[in-house]
Amino acid sequence: MPEHIPVLTRRIIPCLDVKNGRNVRGVKFSADVDAGDPVELAARYDREGADELVFYDITASAEGRDIMGDLVERVASEVFIPLTVGGGLRNADDMYAMLRRGAEKVSINSAAHRDPDLIRIGADRFGSQCIVLSIDAQLRSDRDSPWWEVVLDGGRTPTGLDAIEVAQRGVELGAGEIVMNSIDADGTRAGYDLDQLRAVSDVVPVPVVASGGAGSIEHIRAALVEGRAHAALAASIFHFKMISIERVKRELVAAGLPMRMDPFAAVAVSGRPIRHSREGGNPDRT
Amino acid sequence: MIAVVDYGAGNLHSVERALRHVDAEITVTHDPSEIADATGVVLPGVGAAADTMRGLERAGVIPAILDAIDGGVPYLGICMGLQVLYEASDEDGGTTCLGVVPGRVVRFPPSQHVPHMGWNQVRQQVESPLFAGIPQDANFYFVHSYHAPVDGAPHVAATTDYSVTFTSALLRDNVFATQFHPEKSGAAGLRLYANFVRLAGQHPRDEAIP
């Protein structure tokens, strides 16, 4: 682990892709997840011990952003953990609208790669802690050594930019956190791109969030240990209830990683909530 | 009625939502007479010390807040609502604060990544009804670059380690404040708000907490 960011718990972050106010992944393939109301899903993740939630607006139109604002406000009234909102945020006013509705952080992607000054403007106005730079990157082997190219529009638009350099520059401009989304790994459930994560984590002094490829608890562990990421983002494995967040965290604790085990939200192995005396004191320690 | 002081703090709405969630009767206000009549005063806060002090001065709420504290009304400060209780902060080239408790707020050492942002453990150093039902070393959510040192400081209610050990909660009689954000700290945070609401003479809705 990088020495400059000690002791903080590693984070598990479920990601919700929202289109017109509904969660889209999880609806199409699974009857388990109810009609896909993001508020209900967010509440479920909160109960299971999620450390943070990310909402991506995949409509990303002006109309979609209004719906997203309403959604953020509804989630923020029910769920009391940090919320990050991304998707189609083009300027500081778009960011402000989300922060005002209850987001803790905003995640910027395409607009920031087209105009990196947006990172500086956002950080100056709202503070670095609010600004997450999200990078979609794809492995290239057309040079002497492999590199990762920043791509836009879900991989359809190459930029020629080196993802590691973009991450470093983004932090210099004020990004407080970097999300590395591997387009190669995304949707495969075959594991995060550990080389990419390590390459970025080793050179930026802010937390790196792993994204794309989660299929198992081992994948998440590897991202946090070998990939040196500070947080792992995942969508489908949680939507489809393949693995519960609570179980992920329990196994990561067993693997020696510092995790926040919410004593109230967690469900014990027995399936019953863990009870505490009203006087406080941790039963695990007494 | 609990007065949530409105002076332009960025986390005002989050704090308001968390209090409403546990059924607190609150008024969001900068009216000194409403603050004077309140059975509890909550001071949210996020951002820089000078901005916070300027916001409080502009809103004209400082005398009312200090009167409430002197009058024994339960006070809850969040983040900057803790830091401004000290005499001064090193932030913004030195900022004079409210001086309710002795001490000076300082920046984390340069070796340390700031802001200190994320979930970290809160070690309770005193017994208090404010910690009722909250386990020792529970994780709370932090976002801050300056901190109140522990060494020699009175009124330390809880401590947290981030390369240095700092005051993560302060308690002096009716004055309670947290460096962390209970409104973003899941069930543990809601429980803390409910405990404060009870001290302010109200009946929080415990079922609202997972």
Explain this structure:
The complex is a heterodimer of chains A (286) and B (210). Chain A has one domain (11-254): TIM Barrel. Chain A has an eight-stranded parallel barrel, surrounded by eight helices. Chain A has helices spanning 38-48, 62-78, 92-101, 110-114, 117-126, 163-173, 194-201, 217-225, 236-239, 245-254; strands at residues 11-19, 22-23, 53-57, 83-86, 105-108, 131-140, 147-152, 157-162, 177-182, 208-211, 231-234. With 286 residues, chain A is of the alpha/beta class. Chain A is 33% helix and 21% strand. In chain A, helix 2 (62-78) packs parallel to helix 3 (92-101). By secondary structure, chain B is α/β, with parallel strands linked by helices. Chain B has one domain (2-208): Rossmann fold (3-Layer(aba) Sandwich), CATH 3.40.50.880. In chain B, the strands form two sheets. Chain B has a nine-stranded mixed β-sheet, sandwiched between helices. The longest helix of chain B is centred in the C-terminal third of the chain and has 14 residues, at 186-199. The model of chain B has no long low-confidence stretch (mean pLDDT 95). Classes of the chains: A alpha/beta (286), B alpha/beta (210). Chains A and B meet through helix 2 of A and helix 1, strand 8, strand 9 and helix 6 of B.
